[in-house]
Amino acid sequence: MLFGGVQSFDPSGEVGTGDPIRPLLTTIDRALAAPVLVGEATSIALSIWAALHGLVTLEPAGALDAATAEAAFRPAMHATLRGWATPAVFRSLRQAELAP
Q1: Could you tell me which residues come within 8 angstroms of residue 29 by beta carbon, excluding any fewer than 6 positions away?
Q2: Nearest 5°: phi and psi at 37?
Q3: What is the largest CA-CA distance in the chain?
Q4: Alpha carbons 14 and 24: distance in angstroms, whole number
Q5: Using CA atoms, how far apart are residues 57 and 66, in angstroms rounded to an integer?
Q6: Does the bond joining 35 to the residue before it have cis omega, within 30 degrees of 0?
Q7: Within 13 A of 12's CA, how many CA atoms are on the CB side?
């Protein structure tokens, strides 16, 4: 659903050729160069894809109501990104999340 239904994780196509992961990897590559994220691009993409695809598929499966899914999405995304963030970015993300 997140990337157009059930997809295999095969980041080998060109952007726009039906490869749902290539645009994500392109964005991750920019974040690695910035440096905002640290790690290996394919591992980062796989973790984002798995976490968010799992969360997004729970709602239509009836495991989460819309309000619960909406409330869970942002914290899950932030937690996933914090896990790959450089130390400085991690601190700034955490401070922003804890601010009133």
Answers
A1: 41
A2: -110, 160
A3: 43
A4: 12
A5: 12
A6: yes
A7: 4
What is the pLDDT at residue 54?
83
Alpha-carbon torsion angle 78, 80, 82, 84, nearest 10: -150
Closest Cα to residue 26, out of 36, 4, 39, 11? 11
Q: So what's the pLDDT on residue 14?
A: 53
Place of tokens 């932030």: 78
* Three-state secondary structure call for residue 85: strand
Structure tokens given for 41: 């691009």
Helix (H, G, I), strand (E, B) or coil at 12: coil
**Residue type for 22, please?**
R
Please state the separation of Cα 53 from the chain's center in Å: 9
77: tokens are: 């995304």
Parts of the chain with a pLDDT under 50: 1-3, 15
Place of tokens 């790690």: 39
